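Module 6 notes. Inverse folding takes a fixed backbone as the condition and produces residue identities as the prediction. Think of it as a translation problem where the source language is geometry and the target language is the twenty amino acids. Below is one complete input and output pair. Work through it position by position during the lab.
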């Protein structure tokens, strides 16, 4: 799983019919302390996340196992909204 923060939305009026009704969010990877890391990913939201939320993202075949995405052309999906992250040094 990847820790990320929702930074925006993506609207695609024309898309594969299996993605109709899906909400797309743009996320940026973060480290466990919340610091931005390189790269952005477009994800399918399966948990009703919102702008600024810290989220858990799965990719590859795991993304297609997320709720309602079986047999969909999806490479990244949000599967959780993070409440807290605790790092022990």
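Target side of the pair, the amino acids:
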């Amino acid at each position: 799983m990847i820790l990320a923060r929702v930074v925006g939305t993506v609207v695609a009026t024309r898309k594969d019919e299996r993605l109709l009704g899906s909400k797309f969010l743009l996320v940026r990877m973060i480290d466990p302390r919340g610091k931005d890391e390189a790269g952005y990913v477009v994800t399918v939201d399966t948990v009703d996340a919102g702008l600024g939320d810290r989220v858990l993202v799965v990719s590859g075949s795991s993304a297609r196992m997320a709720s309602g995405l079986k047999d969909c052309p999806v490479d990244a999906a949000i599967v959780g909204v993070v409440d807290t992250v605790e790092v022990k040094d």
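Reference fact for the lab report: The domain at 1-44 is CATH 2.40.50.220 (OB fold (Dihydrolipoamide Acetyltransferase, E2P)).
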